[in-house]
Amino acid sequence: KNQAQTLRTLNQISSRQIDSRYIAFPFLTLRLYQLTTIMKAVQVTELGQPPKLTELDGPIVLGDAPDMVDVKLVASGVHGLVRSRAAGKHYSAKGLPHIPGVDGVFETADGNLFYAAAISPRGGTMVEELKFPKRILTPLPKGTDPVQAAGLVNPIMASWMALATRVTNLPKDFTCVIVGATALSRSEEHTSELQS
Length: 196
Prior knowledge:
Elements: H1 2-12, E1 16-24, E2 29-43, E3 52-57, E4 60-61, E5 68-75, H2 80-86, E6 103-107, E7 113-117, E8 129-133, E9 138-139, H3 146-166, H4 181-195
Parallel strand pairs: 4-8
Antiparallel strand pairs: 1-2, 2-3, 5-6, 5-8, 6-7, 7-9
């Protein structure tokens, strides 16, 4: 009776299932219970088709380090890189099924928010629970909107990286003038109208 009650209690734990296995000995049979986490994930199972919401066993592990941290996804951006990987057009996406996502905002067990980016050939960040190496988690200030952070960091980093690689080893007192392309084209159109 107690065993049946325990089973019912374990079955009622949200988002968990019981995986039972038997080990047989000549005079004794042991039944082992292991809790396995069932979680939702976005998965691409066929190229050219939209991703599907699926269920997976256990958290996705992105990285390999002695100090892995369990996190829950709060928000993940759908950047150009994510769409390209999901379509199978980016060199870093290999094989199916593929979980989209390269970064996001995550919550640790103590309720703190972190930003993290990780690219794996088949595993992405659009899954409820993940394990990350602690070193790639960047704490977010209190009050940060997780959706905005998830959507902005990747495009901002891409722009920063492009500028940072082009401004090293410049001559002393180098001056850079940035002119918007639309202002330049309007000036040319206006000048040609004035000349005719």
